[in-house]
Structure formats: C-alpha cells, structure tokens
Specification:
- With 395 residues, the protein is of the alpha/beta class.
- It folds into three domains: 3-105 and 229-300, FAD/NAD(P)-binding domain (3-Layer(bba) Sandwich); 108-225, FAD/NAD(P)-binding domain (3-Layer(bba) Sandwich); 319-385, Enolase-like, domain 1, CATH 3.30.390.30.
- The chain is built from eight helices and 26 strands.
- The N and C termini lie far apart (48 Å).
- It binds flavin-adenine dinucleotide.
- Residues 312-395 form the Reductase C-terminal domain.
C-alpha cells in the first residue's frame, strides 16, 4: 500500500502509525481523530490528570519527524469500500488500507443526559470538567463500581470529597471478576471512607440528587457515571463491515475486518483468541499497544502475524496496585496466594495444571512471573502457587 489511513487518534491509532514507521513503511500515513487535542493517553485521566498532579497526558511522539499526518477535530462519517474512500467531516479521504481504531464510548445513564452536574469520564475534556468539581469538594455520587468508578472514587476521596458509589450488582467489578475474588475488594471502599451501596438501582437523576428505586434520595453536588463502554462504531452502519452484539468490529485473528484492506484494533474490535478458544473484546491499554504491531506487520505483508495475546491490565484504586493477566473464564481451579484481607495477595487460575490467568494486588512480581508462565503454558504445582513466600515457578 502507499496510503494508509488510520481512524481514531487514541492509543491504538497512534501506535499503529508509529508501528508502521518502525516496520519500515515509507508511504503516507494519515491519522484522523475526532478530538481537537494533541493525541493523549487515557489511564492518567482517572489518576494524576484528574487530581491535577499532571497537567496532561499527551503522547511523547514527534509526529512530524515520523512524517505522520495528523488531522484532528475531524470525524469519520462513513466508509465507501467499493471506491476505497473514507468520508469525514472535512471531506473525502482516499485510502489503500484503512485501519479502524475509534475506541469506545462510555455508556450513558438513561434519563441523566443533560441534567446539570452529571459527568462521564472518558476524554481529556471530561477530566478537565471534573477537576474543579473535585477541588470544590462536592458530595459526589458515582454510578457503577467498575474500574473507572473505583479509580474515580479513589481520586475524589483523595481530594477530600464525600463519595457514595451506587452499584446495581451485589459487589464491585461484578462483570469482570468472580464473586469470591471481588468480595475482598468491597472492604476497600469502606476503608477509604467511600459509602458503597450495592443492589442499588438509579431511578432518576435530578439536579442535586440521585434517587434510587427504593426511594432513597442521595444528595449529589456532582454525579459521575461509570457503567461501562461500548465500541464507537455507529458510524460504520451500512459499510458492510461485520459488527458483533456489542457493536464491536468483528476482526479475524490477523485483525482484518470482513472488508478487504480494512483492519481494526484496540477498544473498537474483538478478535478470536486461539489461546482461550473464544472471541475477546478487550477494553484495556495493553491491547491498544500490542494489537497495532500485528496490524502493521500484516498490512505490510512481510509476515503473516496472528494476534493471540495474553491480555493484561492494571488499575490503581484505594491505595492498591491491581494487575491482571490472562482470561479466567477458561479456568477449572482457583488458587489463592496470601490473605485477601491483607495488603498484598494474588489469585491464580489454572486449567489442567496450566496457569491461564492471574490477579495480583500489590504483588507486581507475581504478575510479571505469572504473565510469562501463562504465555509459555508451563505446567504448575498448585502447592507452590499457594505459598506466597515462594516465587511463581514451574513445577
Ligand atoms: P480510545 O482511547 O478510545 O481512542 C479512540 C479515539 O478515536 C478517540 O480519541 C475518539 O475520539 C476517536 N474517534 C472515535 N470515533 C471517531 C470517528 N468516527 N472519527 C474520528 N475519530 C474517532 N486501561 C488499563 O489497562 N489500565 C488503566 O489503568 C486504564 N485506565 C483508564 C482510565 C480511563 C479514564 C479510561 C477512559 C480508560 C482507561 N483504560 C485503562 C483503558 C484504555 O485507556 C483504553 O483501553 C485505550 O485508551 C484504548 O485505546 P483505543 O485507541 O482503542 O481507543
């Protein structure tokens, strides 16, 4: 190809552009991004950027030196695959190869749209709107005890706000972790002075209050909604690109879409995992770093690279560093390493004596060692795994 057009200038889009240059591509690379800001990293938005301890999180990349053309404040509107043209808010853009990297959008709380004081946390603009809210130390209600809700609650407590988290399920991270593993995390909320209300459904949001379906009225100077994210792919309707049940682009194991010359990577796409035997839709940073290298390699055609990562992510919440590698639904055995009421512990998931996933709380070495063992598929001795004093090693 001579002209590669990448849609979405977030982590996955930017990394695709950089990987193309790293792998020797000398043609035109155009990065199209809807946001007006210089491309930036999202994880600091719920951490340092929110607290104001970092000004911003722009990627430290010299786009000009790499001859990467940035078109910011430009929204992709449609693809015309028959003529290899991308329609955008600033006109048509021809491509030889198109890479979809439009990421995800936060799910909105029905009825809360347009109510003053209701916030989402996905973009730099969102974080900048939330900074003064923290500084003014309002009573804050967070809807959703997922990763974003927990990180936001942590920052808000650090800023001295009174925080209530309402969660429809019976525990935090209900969609992400098994009940027995999420259970010890419930205590983190109380310990940090956050009121966690489980089994709590929001009936409506009014200016200044969140009303639950049991009639409870929670005063709220601000409301932060963190109830998940969906692939930002509505603009692809009618393009002929196959989308899945969550609106995600259904990529193949080479991250190609159902249309020729169109790839998809990052939060907007799912891929079939050979390792775990199911399709994975990963909404984490590492996937937006690794996937682009595969896309660049396949797009340049030098090698045929299959994308089959061990997923990895981290979260910083309530003074703890939480890391996860792998995919536990494939497991048949759970082994605890250490006391989950203490400050540092891990959980190992095995399938047929092989490690398939690991969660580490304050044990980064377990994560590093575990991640390698998951990659390698080495048989393990559960007795060794269960002893937190012994390093994670093969049997
Ligand atoms: P995005 O980062 O969403 O980028 C996509 C870009 O495409 C956006 O800028 C969007 O505006 C643009 N776009 C969308 N549609 C169009 C269009 N039609 N035309 C043009 N442009 C378009 N992961 C972790 O592993 N650890 C963490 O601690 C962590 N913290 C996070 C904290 C926050 C607040 C958030 C929001 C996410 C966090 N994540 C974390 C997840 C991680 O940031 C994402 O997985 C990652 O950003 C995905 O990158 P992406 O490029 O696929 O998507």
């Amino acid at each position: 190809p001579r002209r590669v057009v990448v849609v979405g200038a977030g982590m996955a889009g930017v990394q695709t552009a950089v990987a193309l240059r790293e792998q020797g591509f000398t043609g035109t690379v155009t990065l199209i991004g809807a946001e007006p800001h210089q491309p930036y990293d999202r994880p600091p938005l719920s951490k340092a950027v929110l607290l104001g301890t970092a000004e911003g999180s722009a990627f430290d990349i010299d786009f000009e030196a790499l001859a990467l053309e940035l078109r910011l404040g430009c929204e992709a509107l449609a693809v015309r695959p028959d003529v290899h043209v991308l329609d955008t808010s600033s006109g048509p853009v021809p491509y030889d190869v198109l890479v979809l990297a439009t990421g995800a959008e936060p799910i909105r709380l029905p009825g809360a749209e347009g109510v003053p004081g209701v916030h989402l946390l996905r973009t730099l603009d969102d974080a900048e709107r939330l900074r003064p809210v923290l500084a003014e130390q309002h009573d804050i209600v967070v809807v959703g005890a997922g990763w974003i809700g927990a990180e936001f609650a942590t920052a808000a407590r650090e800023a001295g706000c009174a925080v209530t988290v309402v969660e429809a399920a019976d525990r935090p991270l209900a969609g992400a972790l098994p009940a027995e593993v999420a259970a010890p995390m419930t205590a983190w909320y109380a310990e940090s002075g956050v009121a966690l209300r489980t089994h709590a459904r929001v009936e409506r949001v009014e200016p200044g209050a969140v009303v639950l379906d049991d009639g409870t009225r929670l005063p709220a100077g601000a409301v932060v909604v963190g109830i998940g994210a969906r692939p930002a792919t509505a603009w692809l309707a009618g393009s002929g690109i196959d989308l899945g049940a969550h609106g995600e682009v259904l990529a193949d194991d080479h991250l190609r879409t159902s249309l020729p010359d169109v790839y998809a990577v990052g939060d907007c796409a799912s891929f079939p995992s050979g390792r775990y035997g199911e399709r994975l839709l990963v909404h984490h940073w590492d996937n937006a770093l690794q996937g682009p290298r595969t896309v660049a390699a396949n797009l340049l055609g030098a090698t045929s690279a299959v994308y089959d990562p061990v997923p990895y992510f981290w979260s910083e919440q309530f003074g703890r560093f939480v890391q996860y590698a792998g995919h536990h639904p494939a497991a048949d055995t759970t082994v605890w390493r250490g006391d989950p009421s203490g400050p540092a512990w891990s959980v190992c998931w095995l399938r047929d004596d092989r490690l398939v996933a690991l969660l580490a709380v304050g044990r980064p070495r377990d994560l590093a060692q575990g991640r390698r063992l998951i990659e390698a598929g080495t048989p393990m001795d559960p007795a060794v795994l269960a002893d937190p004093a012994r390093p994670l090693k093969a049997a």
